[in-house]
Amino acid sequence: MFFASLLFCWVSLNGPQCLVAQDTYGPYPTDKQCQARIEEMADKIRQEMPFADIRGRLCKDISNTENV
Length: 68
Hints:
Blueprint: E1 2-12, E2 15-22, H1 31-48, E3 53-61
Antiparallel strand pairs: 1-2, 1-3
C-alpha cells in the first residue's frame, strides 16, 4: 500500500513558506495509482495557488510498517 504526499512552497511577505500536503483518500494498492493521485493533488494546488512551486513528491510504501 502506498501513501501520497507532496511538498510545495510559495513566497509570501514573510519570506518563503512551505507545506506538506498529505492525501486523505489513500492509501493506494499500487505505486502507479499513488503517482496518479499525486498529480491530481499537484494540479489542485496549482489551481488554488498559481504561484506555488511543487518541490517534492512521495509515494511511501506503508505495507511493511508495523502498528505500534
